[in-house]
Write a structure and sequence with these properties.
Layout: E1 25-26, E2 32-33, E3 48-50, E4 53-55, E5 57-62, E6 65-70, E7 75-82, E8 88-90, H1 98-103, E9 111-113, E10 119-120, E11 124-127, E12 130-133, E13 142-143, E14 156-161, E15 164-171, E16 182-190, E17 194-203, E18 207-208, E19 212-214, E20 231-234, E21 238-240, E22 253-254, E23 266-267, H2 278-283, E24 287-291, H3 303-306, E25 310-313, E26 319-325, E27 329-333, E28 357-361, E29 376-377, E30 383-393
Antiparallel strand pairs: 1-2, 3-4, 5-6, 6-7, 7-8, 9-19, 10-13, 11-12, 14-15, 15-16, 16-17, 17-30, 18-29, 20-23, 20-25, 21-22, 21-24, 24-27, 25-26, 26-30, 27-28
The structure holds alpha-D-galactopyranose.
Length: 394
């Protein structure tokens, strides 16, 4: 639970080789982490209240991997993995204080997004004959849960052990216009190779649900410039083209012969400015849902049999991130709205296309598109999905 007493002792232990120095630091749950903590934000800077609830920063640690998560928006603040030389590298964009997250929640840095990840057209949908009206926060559409989505609420955090953080949130019937009291649990679990996120939910009325994590990755390290030379491979032969407001047209089109063909490893920047392509124009680059070739159902333990949905590689760091999921789609967003106005951790700044998101999820606007896989959750059913971000180097 939120332990408000946080001891932050900055004992510099050693600076070995290129490795950032270590110090002893205690997170909001009172757990000690000593590896690569000089890259981690000061947990003191996350002690505050929002909506009358305490916020804090929690560390997970396993082998060479460290993660920092705040219960504000259940956001992944830092994810530190070794690069090809063994140097700890923070591969996600984030802020170094809760104040900055509260000031700019709309970047969705590291957030759990809900109830509905991405857009619902005209901010409305029908379920069992009844129309539900949502908040228009993206032109005529609703985006990422509406005015105050799951990214901007305080979750209840419980550290189960040094590798596992469980976050829960109860979304009330009618919150942001969605029906049903929804009980949501998100578990971050760090193993020695990567970060697994498990999502679970139940409802007391039929509703729609599409949860994802909105981390912005730069595998060369957050704040190190363009992601144009990262390579990306997507296990997707099809994608869902959009209209000018980024709502899928309902068609499922082949990527072959288009800038959307990432079936072989390709530099993100290679075709991103192909202005002859209308879809690239609409997205201001990549901001599209890809239809994964295999819907990878089954327990997380079986993920390796299914193969990765995406593989991204940092050109300078050699860090390879493989994304496994049971979800049918992945929103690949190339950071087209980043513009250098967000002060990142460690005094760095963001910039146009200096990070990318791979949001594993159901397709945008599914509640209005009967041909897309259903996002309806009914009472008595259990929503249970998972995504795993696995790291290696080459
Ligand atoms: C998603 C959307 C983008 C953008 C980002 C957040 O990925 O598809 O259009 O809104 O979130 O900036």
């Amino acid at each position: 639970m939120n332990n408000r007493i946080v001891i932050f002792s900055a004992i510099l232990l050693a600076a070995c080789g290129n490795n950032p120095s270590s110090r002893t630091v205690t997170d909001t749950a009172g757990a000690r982490t000593v590896t690569a903590v000089s890259l981690l934000p000061d947990p003191d800077n996350f002690l505050d209240t929002a909506d009358g609830q305490a916020t804090g920063l929690y560390f997970l640690h396993n082998g060479n991997l460290t993660a920092a998560i705040t219960n504000y928006g259940a956001r992944l603040v830092s994810l530190i993995v070794p690069d090809k030389n063994g140097t700890p590298t923070d591969v996600v964009l984030g802020y170094d204080s809760i104040g900055k997250y509260l000031h700019r929640p709309d970047t969705y840095f590291g957030a759990i997004v809900g109830r509905y990840g991405n857009r619902i057209g005209h901010a409305r949908f029908k379920l069992n004959g009844k129309e539900y009206t949502l908040y228009k926060n993206n032109g005529p559409n609703t985006l990422h849960g509406g005015k105050k989505g799951f990214d901007a609420v305080v979750w209840n955090a419980r550290k189960l052990d040094t590798t596992t953080l469980r976050l829960t949130y109860i979304s009330k019937d009618g919150e942001e216009g969605y029906p049903g009291n929804l009980q949501v649990t998100v578990t971050y679990l760090l193993d020695s190779n990567g970060l697994r996120i498990n999502y679970e939910a139940t409802t007391d009325k039929p509703t729609v649900l599409n949860l994802t994590n909105h981390s912005y990755f730069n595998l060369n390290g957050q704040g190190t410039g363009t992601i144009g030379n990262h390579t990306l491979q997507l296990n997707a032969n099809y994608y869902t083209p959009v209209d000018s407001t980024l709502i899928p047209t309902g068609k499922i089109e082949s990527v072959t012969g288009t800038p959307f063909d990432f079936t072989k490893p390709t530099a993100i920047g290679a075709r991103i400015n192909d202005s002859a392509n209308r879809q690239i124009k609409f997205g201001h680059g990549y901001d599209h849902n890809f239809v994964l070739n295999t819907v990878k159902l089954g327990p997380p333990e079986g993920y390796e049999e299914h193969g990765p949905a995406a593989i991204a590689t940092g050109d300078l760091s050699g860090i390879v991130m493989s994304v496994y999921t049971d979800q049918p789609g992945i929103q690949f967003y190339s950071g087209n709205f980043l513009n250098g106005t967000n002060p990142l951790k460690g005094g760095k700044t963001d910039g146009y296309r200096t990070a990318f998101c791979l949001e594993t999820q159901h397709f945008p606007n599914s509640p209005n598109e009967p041909s897309f896989p259903s996002t309806v959750l009914k009472p008595g059913e259990k929503y249970s999905t998972w995504t795993y971000f696995k790291f290696s180097t080459k």
